[in-house]
Design brief:
206 residues; mainly alpha
Length: 206
C-alpha cells in the first residue's frame, strides 16, 4: 500500500507540474494517475464491479477530452456519465437513495447556490450556451454526493465524493469566473484524490 501510494503521489505531482509548466508533457502525464488506479484494481482482484469500472473509465475519457481546447462540453458529458455510474454503484451497495432529510436539504441548497453563482457569471460573460450543461452537471454532482452518504461522514466514500464535487466546482470557477494557476493545480489534486479514495472505498486499492 505504501509503495502504491508513493507511486500514485509521484504521478499526481508529475501531472500537476506539467499542467502548470510544461503543457506538451501534460498530454501524457494527465491520465497516468487514473490509469495507475485502474491497473491496481485489476492487479488487486479478479472481479471488478461494473459500475465502478464504468465510472472511472468515463473519468479517464473526460481527462483526455478536456485536453482539447474544444473538448469542454464533451469532457463534461463524460464526467457526467461517470458521476451517474458512481451513483449506481453507491445505490447498489446502500440499497437505495439516502433519505436523511436535513443532509439532503443541505446538499440541495448547496447545489442551488452553486448553480446561481456559476449561471450569474455565465450571463455576465455572455457564455449562455453553457447554462444548461452546467445546471445538469451540478445537479448530478449533488446527487452523486448524496448517494455516498450511506457511509460514515469520515469514510473514503464520502470524502472522495466531496473532493470530486469540489474539483468540479474549482474547474467551473477557473473556466467561467477567474483563471488562476493555483486553482488549476487544486482542480487536479482534488480530482486525483477523489478517484483514489473512491477506489479505496470500493476495495480496489489495498
Amino acid at each position: 500500500m505504501e509503495l502504491r501510494m508513493l507511486i500514485f503521489v509521484s504521478l499526481v505531482v508529475l501531472a500537476v507540474l506539467t499542467k502548470l509548466f510544461w503543457r506538451r508533457a501534460y498530454i501524457f502525464a494527465k491520465p497516468l494517475p487514473v490509469i495507475f488506479i485502474i491497473v491496481n484494481a485489476f492487479a488487486s482482484t479478479t472481479r471488478i464491479e461494473t459500475y465502478w469500472f464504468a465510472a472511472i473509465s468515463f473519468g479517464l475519457a473526460g481527462d483526455i477530452l478536456l485536453l482539447h481546447p474544444r473538448g469542454f462540453v464533451a469532457g463534461l458529458l463524460s464526467f457526467l456519465f461517470g458521476h451517474i455510474f458512481y451513483i449506481f454503484a453507491f445505490n447498489r451497495e446502500g440499497g437505495g437513495w439516502y433519505q436523511d432529510i436535513p443532509i439532503s436539504l443541505a446538499i440541495f441548497l448547496g447545489v442551488l447556490l452553486l448553480v446561481y453563482y456559476l449561471v450569474r457569471h455565465l450571463v455576465k460573460t455572455r457564455q449562455k450556451k453553457y447554462i444548461l450543461p452546467v445546471f445538469v452537471y451540478t445537479v448530478v454532482s449533488g446527487l452523486f454526493l448524496l448517494s455516498s452518504m450511506h457511509n460514515p461522514i469520515q469514510s473514503a466514500a464520502v470524502i472522495g465524493a466531496f473532493f470530486f464535487c469540489f474539483s468540479d466546482f474549482l474547474l467551473g470557477f477557473h473556466k467561467f469566473v477567474r483563471p488562476i494557476w493555483y486553482v488549476q493545480a487544486a482542480v487536479s489534486i482534488t480530482y486525483y484524490m477523489a478517484q483514489w479514495l473512491l477506489a479505496l472505498h470500493f476495495g480496489y486499492i489495498r
